[in-house]
Amino acid sequence: MSSIVLLVGQCGNQVGHELMGLIDKSDTHPLSHRDGKLRCVCVDSESKVINHNYREDTRSSGLYREGNMIAGQRGRGNNWALGYHGLSGETEETSLLHRAMETVRKEVERCDSYAGTVVVHSLTGGTGSGLGSRLVERIRDTYPLAHVMSVAVSPHSSGDSPLQHYNSLLSLSSLQRHADGVLLFNNDDVLHHITTHTSLVSRHKPSGSISLKDMNSYISASLAGVLQPLGSKPKRIKGKAKEKGCKGGVGELNDKKTKKKKLNQSAE
């Protein structure tokens, strides 16, 4: 069963980029096609973050597919309605929604057995909240038998945008109706968890300050624990059990069976 990851907006692409970096370092690649490219679609109304992530990936591992980087020419101004309905003057063929769904369709056709989509987005900005909600709805209508899971990042209780609480309310209302599940990360809770565990603070910040990259890394590590299957660890455990054969391994069970047979034979 194959799943597709859809990164929407600035926050979604930053968190997803950290997650793809963790997957690249692991032994298994459950979100990759047979050609090594990720089953990942990146969508944003502006090209800055997407271009930055693609350049970083090109210099390192080259896991992103160039055709899966969908960027617009103008932001959504932290407005849910602009993200959900699109800008005035856009046609259906030129809208971000249509381009994103066409790219998702191509990714679904590349899968041997399509299972569902994981949408990573925020509830604060216009693109993440508005377009993210619309994409979840459209995916549900287009692929009714597949699962749709939303990974949503909610804003701080006191943020920069005066519309963030309206965006969150409208987005969560849509997600409740159309998504099979919602993994909700609250920025205040993430920040509190990092401050109480100093080992999670980035080594690049010796002063102890916490950056957005640290928060994104924490969220991506939590997602990796849910989405990424175990790779080399079970193999090492299995190998140790075979080598030692005496501490809770297969060898101990075989020894017990042998002793039991000898006792039965002596009793006879």
UniProtKB/TrEMBL annotation:
- List where the protein spans the membrane: none
Single GO MF annotation: GTP binding
What is one GO biological process annotated to this record? microtubule-based process
Gene Ontology cellular-component terms for this entry are: microtubule
Q: What name does the UniProt record give this protein?
A: Tubulin/FtsZ GTPase domain-containing protein
Family (UniProt): Belongs to the tubulin family.
Q: Which Pfam families match?
A: Tubulin (PF00091)
- Does the record's keyword annotation contain GTP-binding? yes
Domain Tubulin/FtsZ GTPase, by residue range, is 40-235
Which InterPro entries does the annotation name? Epsilon_tubulin, Tubulin, Tubulin/FtsZ_GTPase_sf, Tubulin_FtsZ_GTPase
Compositional bias segments (type: Basic residues): 257-268
What organism does the UniProt record list as the source?
A: Desmophyllum pertusum
Q: Which UniProt keywords apply?
A: GTP-binding, Microtubule, Nucleotide-binding
Q: Which residues form a coiled coil?
A: none
Q: Tell me the segments the record calls region Disordered.
A: 233-268
Asked whether the keyword GTP-binding is assigned, the reply is: yes
